[in-house]
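FORM 7B: Structural annotation worksheet

SECTION A. Query
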Amino acid sequence: MRDLLATSLTAPPRVRPLEGGLGAEMLGLQVAAVDDVAFPGLYAAFLKHQLLLFRDQSLPPAAQVVFARRFGEVQVHVMDQYHASEHPELYTLSNLDAAGQPSGRHPDRGTLAWHTDGSWRRVTGQATMLYAERIPSSGGGTEFADMYSAYDALDPAEQARLAGWRAIHNLNFSRDRRHGEEPLTEAQREAVPPVDHPIVRTHPETGRKCIFLGDHAETIQGMDYAAGRALVEALNERIVAAARIYRHRWRPGDFMVWDNRCLLHRAESYDTAREPRVIRRCTVLGEVPS
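SECTION B. Predicted structure
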């Protein structure tokens, strides 16, 4: 492993496309050892493939934060109840109780719906990174949907129509309808008021157009609320149906990083009463969508 790692840090990273063509596995590379020499090639692969998988990683919490900072400023999530370590940048999704046993409680059912992380902020998420600590024997995977292909599947007239619309994204809305028994506190709601973003955005680095919606999108700016709400729901169904999809089955030690600007994702259900699932997440902030 030492010789393989030394090679990986001085040569272009070895890449293997994932099944279906969305995403790629980075071979022979330990994330915790990525340095200034290795990072540019890794980041180029991130932009090209949208989703990168690293298997068999040894990645302590501090090392995950250090790696994330190579991409940019790391978000400290407003829902601080998920800060389970001395690193507030990390957001822990766990169904374990105080004794370390499965509790039967899903930590955040909002993750089960298609969404993009941080779209409820004016400056949205650039990249999200997940590290798998404990994984159920079945279920609990993560699916990804390519929003470049969703945009390309629209006819030109609809592309032009959607380009004139902006959606209202609201964390309080999505939290209440998916995990309403644990609502945001008043202080949390005040910290993240609703924001508007274009439905069609241009990726700031690739220049490609994609659809930017997901479960945090509530309605359409300037439209009757109910009509806008119905339209967002219909669009969310259509774009996922039209998109390339990758379904990931986790193994302990897997690490994934993906581009929030052009992907939606969702977690799959699992037996929360019998199976453990502990995932450590962080999100890197990007830019104001345009």
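SECTION C. Observations
The chain has one domain: 2-285. Residues 1-9 have pLDDT under 50 and may be disordered.

SECTION D. Sign-off
Analyst initials: ____
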